[in-house]
TrEMBL record:
GO molecular function: 2 iron, 2 sulfur cluster binding; metal ion binding
Protein source organism: Chanos chanos
Keywords (A to Z) from UniProt: 2Fe-2S, Acetylation, Iron, Iron-sulfur, Metal-binding, Phosphoprotein, Repeat
Gene3D superfamilies associated with the record: Rieske [2Fe-2S] iron-sulphur domain
Keyword set includes ATP-binding: no
Domain of life: Eukaryota
InterPro entries in UniProt: Rieske_2Fe-2S, Rieske_2Fe-2S_sf, Sol_Rieske_ferrdox_dom
Name this protein carries in UniProt: Rieske domain-containing protein
Domain spans labelled Rieske: 14-80
């Protein structure tokens, strides 16, 4: 969800993640927000926040490029090039209908795969309101204690 001018967007609390000017200058920061690893980024005049690890294999989205696909701004996972919309957290992919002559790739959605959080700005401070919508989203796995324990024990190897 893109940035809002100020205030909370729901009954959920907002958490201070930094100063507006500092995040604009850094372009990307990672924060531990009420038990979640969150990436906060600033791109083309807007703030965005999402779970820090890619839904597919836990790739570090902080290292991902931001590109436009099918008219939507996306972050591209540096590990496997999965494309995730910044607005909704949808996983995008290109499909080809083999019956189409000539075959032409079309953009399709896998649905919401990455948890996106709301960003607000007030008096020069940037706040994140966590998305606590019910139902599991694929990126939630990388926020679990089970995953964190495996990572701490070295059972999960960090790629690249």
């Amino acid at each position: 969800m893109s940035s809002h001018d100020q205030g909370e967007t729901s009954s959920n609390p907002s958490y201070l993640v930094g100063k507006r000017d500092d995040i604009i200058q850094a372009k990307r920061v990672t924060k531990f927000v009420n038990g979640r690893d969150v990436l906060v980024l600033y791109h083309q005049g807007e703030f965005h926040a999402l779970d820090m690890r890619c839904y597919h294999s836990g790739g570090p989205l902080v290292k991902g490029d931001i590109e436009e696909f099918n008219g939507q701004m996306c972050i591209v996972c540096p590990w496997h090039k999965y494309k995730i919309t910044l607005a909704e957290g949808e996983g995008l992919y290109q499909a080809v209908d083999p019956n189409m002559k000539p075959p032409k790739p079309v953009w399709c959605s896998k649905g919401i795969k990455q948890r996106i959080h709301t960003v607000s700005v007030s008096n020069g401070d940037v706040f994140v309101t966590l998305n606590d919508s019910p139902g599991a989203i694929d990126s939630d796995y990388y926020q679990t204690q089970k995953y964190r324990d495996k990572l701490a024990k070295g059972e999960i190897k960090e790629e690249k």
